[in-house]
């Protein structure tokens, strides 16, 4: 485990931000931190980045209790982003990289690699003010990853990116994961969760209400439902409930103990079956279901 | 530690590379030199002479009574009513009419001019007539001209500071006052100036939202301290530039004046040393002459070191408070409701300094130079008059203590404030932040 979070508590004057939060974030995986606004995601991230401290509980980073020095091994892209407007792009990134403990020459070399990789060589001497929003986002992303952190924390990384740059960012995140970096990313965009995450945790009202491997979570929320496409008339079959149906399409639920082969055998007696597949709940559905259950 | 250095470096370099820094660094010494040099230049320059017509019905004044470097008087017999519309055409700058009964009616003198006459011209004319009228009145009262002249003595004392071991130095209380005033004013301006620079820097980081990235790398107090020290070093750099450039410039202008005076003396075949005397007199009369005198009689290294100390530590104290305010707000306009409370002690200490200047050894002056908030300005104002070493040491110690206390409080507000958005900061809110846990 790269990050073990145990019994974490954080209270503010008027509300509880985190209540007995336990999470295990495995090394080299992309971990999705989900939850509605105000659930406590940012509070948790700020404790991991040591911007604030917890009221109780422990965090272990790569097996050691989290210390100040670990800040250099974490890269953090906050949801609300900003740069020094009047500084030049190159100088600014160099400053941020040095604040992460990189030596100057090393930082310059790595930054140059990134400038070539993202095809932005001509930006080095431009003041940030002259950059478009998308260009600033790229600059910020470089600042987050240039020191090759063990843990990359991305808070709503896709907000503000156009589809092309969002795709590029997705590729970069996957490439970084390939290098062995652990990525913790917080979002409420469920499509990116399905595409990128290996593990997820859902936080609602300061508590972890759901966590685990992505496929395993999806399996857990399967409702034993199947979608079919067919030709003919579908009338009632004992042991099979029609959840919804339109001309040529239907969603069915099988009673306990009925296998798919047995069900198909019964269906093809009535109609010509064109398509048959299991309904896998989307994370969007799971998210809405779990959040409304725990509210 | 290394990270604080990085923050200091960024704050310092970005500010020192700005054009405005160099403009103010170069402009101030030029201005100071001008204050020093222009009175001398004016004194050396030949004054334009004013032509004045005079109609004296009292027949009191003779042409020997009307001797003035800048004024040339011509008697006229044309009556006041007729000439007051004519004198300008005749080429006079002003027309003076003296009534028959001027001895009994000193307010009956009229000065006509086509343009508004200057105050100095009015005073010169009045002085000349007044001298004669007084003389005449004295004479009538039975006091001879000789006795009158002999009574016109000027008292000009020399002030001497006697140190404990009996050594004597000629001092100038006027000079000490000017030096004290200048140092007090500079401290007043720079404390406000650099303090608000720190505040604006904090607001910039907060409103541009870069703050969260930075404090995931350095602790908030490191960032705050780095910023304060960085900006403070910019201030020190500026002072050093000011001092070096001012000394350099005044030396150069002094040399130019010296050679010019010599040349004038040779050219006009004036009696030996006359021009040099003129210049020396002008220098003594100009405020810088007094300061030069006081500089000769005071411990300059002590004053310089104390000045830099009081600027730097006083600045650290105030700017930490400014940083706390900057962290609590989201824009400069929102900051105004808080800045006045930090500005009040600065303004109060500047006002107290006026009093300290009058009476540098009074109880109020003593306390004003001890209390950390008012001590930077007030101790610097007292210092040219001479301050016992133990008082200076105590005041410095208290100031350092005051800085530590203020920065502790500020750091606690700062670490909470920089992450607070959308919540309108109030005094109550700020005091709550003080007690928040990590």
Quick take:
The complex is a heterodimer of chains A (295) and B (438). With 295 residues, chain A is α/β, with parallel strands linked by helices.
Write the layout of secondary structure elements.
The complex is a heterodimer of chains A (295) and B (438).
Chain A (H helix, E strand, L loop, with lengths): L2 E9 L4 E10 L4 E5 L6 H8 L7 E6 L2 E2 L8 E4 L11 H11 L4 H14 L15 H13 L5 E5 L7 H16 L3 E6 L2 H7 L2 E6 L2 E7 H7 L4 E7 L8 E7 L2 E6 L5 H8 L4 E7 L4 H12 L1
Parallel strand pairs in A: 3-8, 3-9, 6-7, 7-8
Antiparallel strand pairs in A: 1-2, 1-4, 4-5, 9-10, 11-13, 11-14, 12-13
Chain B lengths: L1 H15 L2 H26 L5 E7 L14 E5 L4 H4 L10 E5 L11 E4 L5 H22 L4 H7 L7 E4 L5 E4 L1 H35 L3 H4 L5 H48 L6 H12 L1 H11 L2 H29 L3 H27 L4 H6 L6 H8 L6 H29 L9 H7 L5
Parallel strand pairs in B: 1-2, 1-3
Antiparallel strand pairs in B: 3-4, 5-6
Helix pairs in contact in B: 1-8, 2-8, 2-9, 6-8, 6-10, 6-11, 6-12, 6-14, 8-9, 8-11, 9-10, 11-12, 11-14, 11-15, 12-14
State the helicity of chain A in percent bands: 25-40%
| First-last Cα distance of chain A | 30 Å
CATH fold-level topology of the largest domain in chain A:
Rossmann fold
Strand order of the largest sheet of chain B: 2-1-3-4
Give the SSE order of chain A as H and E letters.
Answer: EEEHEEEHHHEHEHEEHEEEHEH
What number of domains of chain B?
Answer: 2
Unreliable residue stretches of chain A: none
The CATH class of the largest domain in chain A, by name, is Alpha Beta
Number of distinct helices of chain B: 16
Poorly predicted runs of chain B? none
Class per helix and strand makeup of chain A: alpha/beta
Q: Name the pair of protein chains with the most residues at their interface, and give those residue counts.
A: A-B, 30 and 24 residues
Gross CATH architecture of the largest domain in chain A: 3-Layer(aba) Sandwich
Number of strands of chain B: 6
Helix content of chain B: 55-70%
- Biggest sheet character of chain A: 6 strands, mixed
Main beta sheet of chain B: strand number and arrangement? 4 strands, mixed
- What gyration radius of chain A follows from the Cα positions, in whole Å? 24 Å
What proportion strand of chain A?
25-35%
């Amino acid at each position: 485990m790269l990050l073990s979070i145990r019994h974490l508590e954080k209270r503010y004057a008027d509300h509880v931000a985190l209540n007995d939060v336990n999470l295990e974030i495995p090394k080299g995986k992309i971990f999705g931190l989900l939850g509605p606004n105000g659930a406590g995601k940012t509070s948790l991230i700020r404790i991991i980045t040591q911007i604030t401290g917890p009221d109780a509980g422990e965090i272990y980073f790569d097996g050691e209790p989290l210390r100040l020095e670990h800040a250099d091994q974490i890269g953090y892209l906050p949801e609300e982003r900003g740069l020094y407007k009047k500084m030049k792009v190159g100088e600014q990134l160099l400053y941020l990289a040095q604040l992460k403990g990189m030596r100057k020459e090393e930082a310059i070399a790595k930054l140059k690699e990134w400038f070539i990789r993202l095809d932005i060589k001509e930006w080095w001497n431009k003041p940030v003010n002259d950059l478009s929003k998308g260009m600033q986002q790229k600059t910020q992303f470089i600042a987050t990853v240039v020191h090759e952190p063990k843990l990359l924390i991305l808070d709503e990384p896709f907000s503000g990116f156009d589809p092309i740059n969002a795709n590029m960012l997705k590729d970069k995140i996957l490439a970084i994961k390939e290098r062995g970096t652990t990525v913790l990313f917080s979002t409420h965009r469920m499509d990116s969760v399905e595409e990128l995450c290996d593990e997820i945790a859902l936080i609602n009202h300061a508590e972890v209400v759901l966590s685990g491997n992505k496929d395993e979570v999806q399996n857990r929320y399967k409702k034993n439902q199947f979608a079919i496409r067919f030709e003919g008339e579908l009338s009632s079959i004992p042991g099979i409930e029609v959840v919804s149906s339109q001309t040529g399409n239907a969603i069915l639920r099988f009673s306990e103990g009925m296998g798919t082969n047995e069900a198909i055998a019964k269906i093809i007696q009535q109609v010509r079956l064109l398509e048959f597949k299991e309904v896998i709940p989307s994370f969007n559905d799971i998210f809405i279901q779990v959040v409304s259950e725990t509210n | 530690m290394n990270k604080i250095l990085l923050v200091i470096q960024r704050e310092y370099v970005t500010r020192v590379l700005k054009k405005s820094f160099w403009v103010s660094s170069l402009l101030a010494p030029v201005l100071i030199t001008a204050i020093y040099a222009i009175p001398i230049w004016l004194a050396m320059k030949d004054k334009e002479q004013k032509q004045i017509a005079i109609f004296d019905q009292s027949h009191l004044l003779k042409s020997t009574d009307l001797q003035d470097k800048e004024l040339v008087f011509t008697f006229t017999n044309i009556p006041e009513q007729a000439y007051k519309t004519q004198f300008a055409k005749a080429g006079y700058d002003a027309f003076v009419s003296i009534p028959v009964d001027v001895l009994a009616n000193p307010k009956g003198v009229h000065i006509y001019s086509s343009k508004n006459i200057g105050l100095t011209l009015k005073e010169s004319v009045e002085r000349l007539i007044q001298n004669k009228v007084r003389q005449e009145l004295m004479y009538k009262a039975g006091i001879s001209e000789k006795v009158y002249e002999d009574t016109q003595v000027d008292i000009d004392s020399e002030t001497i500071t006697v140190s404990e071991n009996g050594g004597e130095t000629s001092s100038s209380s006027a000079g000490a006052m000017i030096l004290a005033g200048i140092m007090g004013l500079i401290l007043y301006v720079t404390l406000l100036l650099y303090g608000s620079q720190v505040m604006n820097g904090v607001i910039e980081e907060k409103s541009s939202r870069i703050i969260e990235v930075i404090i995931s790398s350095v602790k908030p107090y490191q960032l705050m301290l780095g910023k304060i020290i960085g900006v403070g070093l910019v201030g020190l750099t500026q002072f050093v530039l000011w001092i070096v450039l001012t000394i350099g410039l005044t030396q150069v202008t002094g040399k130019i004046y010296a050679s010019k005076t010599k040349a004038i003396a040779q050219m006009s075949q004036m009696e030996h040393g006359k021009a040099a005397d003129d210049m020396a007199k002008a220098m003594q009369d100009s405020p810088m002459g007094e300061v030069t005198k006081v500089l000769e009689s005071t411990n300059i290294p002590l004053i310089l070191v104390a000045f830099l100390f009081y600027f730097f530590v006083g600045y650290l104290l105030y700017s930490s408070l400014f940083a706390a305010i900057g962290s609590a707000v989201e824009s400069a306009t929102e900051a105004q409701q808080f800045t006045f409370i930090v500005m009040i002690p600065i303004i109060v200490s500047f006002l107290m300094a006026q009093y300290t200047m009058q009476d540098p050894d009074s109880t109020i002056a003593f306390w004003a130079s001890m209390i950390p908030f008012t001590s930077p300005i007030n101790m610097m104002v007292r210092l040219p008059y001479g301050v016992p070493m133990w008082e200076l040491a105590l005041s410095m110690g208290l100031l350092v203590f005051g800085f530590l206390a203020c920065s502790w409080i500020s750091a606690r507000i700062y670490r909470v404030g920089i992450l607070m958005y959308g919540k309108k900061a109030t005094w109550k809110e700020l005091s709550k932040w003080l007690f928040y846990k990590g």
